[in-house]
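anyone seen this seq b4? input:
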Amino acid sequence: MNIPSDLKYTKDHEWVKIEGDLATIGITDFAQGELGDIVYVEVETVDETLDAEEIFGTVEAVKTVSDLFLPLSGEIIEFNESLEDEPEKVNTDPYGEGWMIKVKCSDLSQMDTLMSAEDYKTLIGA
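predicted toks r here
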C-alpha cells in the first residue's frame, strides 16, 4: 500500500500536500481500495470557504457513495476537472493525477491536527 511520507493524512482517509498556503487534497490509496471502482467525483464547493471537517464533495463507487471532508479551513479554489471524464484516476493514481481539490488555507496551524504517514499507517493497520 502506498502511503507517501511527505503528505499529511486525516482519520477520514484524505491526504494533504501543503505548498505555502495552498493545500492539494485527495483520498488515500487505502480509501480508494476500500471504495472499489470510482465512477464519479462531485465537488460543487469551488469558490466557497469552508471550515475544517465540513463536507466538500462526494465520491461515488460502484457499491457506495462517500462524503469527502475538508482537512483544513479555507477557500476551495480549484477542482481537478479531469476527474469529470476520468474518475478512475482516483483509483490508478490517488496521489498524482487523482488529486481532487486545491484549497487556499486560512489557518495553517490546523496542520498540527493532521497525521503523519506513520500515524496513518497505524490507523489503518498497515
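The chain has four helices and nine strands. Helices lie at 29-35, 82-85, 89-92, 117-124. kinda curious what u guys think
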